[in-house]
Specification:
The protein is an alpha+beta fold. It has 10 helices and 4 strands. Helices cover 56% and strands 12% of the residues. This is NAD-glutamate dehydrogenase.
Length: 250
């Protein structure tokens, strides 16, 4: 379901210990409002580098009244050495009310989380497929506009186009995985195969669709060819978005 470097793994014991130490004063301030805390994101993958990567922690509370925010802020430990933490505080109601607007993010969290303490509310979340389709279309259309604007501004600057393609590769892979889930498929393990499968399903040119992935992971080849490859990817993205717009989900 995730690429090999993104497969769910158990963090190192030192990371778990540091996370629980970080959580303790925060949990004490929340008191009875505390529901649960999770590790999420890259810390649960082989790609995690404790020297450079930050540890994502999701803290779920029954309520997060404004009066609580300053005491929570004061309780958050300052970390001078790695690992460093990026907390996300949400109330139970915020989660329940955000499933329709952040379906991609919640599906990703469901697939890759580790309960540190408390009641596991993430496993019970149910994300409507209709909302997933809408967010996918929104995200892809936004990226389409951004890529087009970059081409207009940098048509004669292949180095800029190259960086743009390489920088977009992982985000498109994540969106394409979600698109396959929307169709009821389990995404392939390898990112390249995710691109290929989306091309197969939607009858797109695989070489054009895979340009960001290939630029990032296989090198750009001749820089003079980058503008044409950039345009070929945009053409396949246009076709994909039209197909998603017409896609009907139960």
């Amino acid at each position: 379901m995730l690429t090999e470097s993104e497969s769910r793994i158990e963090p190192a014991p030192a990371i778990l210990q540091a996370a629980r130490r970080w959580l303790e004063p925060v949990r004490n301030v929340l008191g009875s409002e505390f529901i649960s805390a999770y590790l999420t994101g890259s810390v649960l993958t082989r790609a995690f580098d404790p020297r450079r990567s930050r540890v994502n922690i999701l803290i779920v509370a029954q309520r997060l009244d404004t009066a609580l925010l300053v005491p929570i802020a004061r309780a958050i430990p300052a970390t001078r050495r790695a690992p460093h933490f990026d907390p996300l505080f949400l109330s139970r109601r915020q989660i329940e009310k955000s499933l329709d607007v952040f379906p991609i993010e919640w599906i990703e969290i469901q697939e890759r989380h580790l309960l540190l303490a408390g009641e596991d509310v993430v496993d019970r979340l149910q994300v409507a497929r209709t909302n997933l389709r809408l967010q996918l279309e929104h995200e892809l259309r936004s990226k389409q506009i951004q890529l087009r604007q970059t081409l207009l501004a940098a048509a004669r600057k292949p180095a800029v186009l190259e960086r743009t393609l390489a920088g977009a590769a992982s985000s498109f892979a994540a969106l394409f995985r979600s698109l396959l889930r929307l169709r009821g498929e389990e995404p392939p393990a390898e990112a390249a195969r995710v691109y290929e499968r989306v091309a197969e399903v939607f009858q797109l040119d695989a070489a054009g669709l895979m340009v960001p992935h290939n630029v990032r992971h296989s090198g750009s080849g001749k820089r003079a060819e980058i503008p044409a490859r950039y345009r070929s990817f945009l053409a396949e993205l246009d076709r994909l978005i039209e197909a998603i717009d017409e896609l009907r989900v139960p």
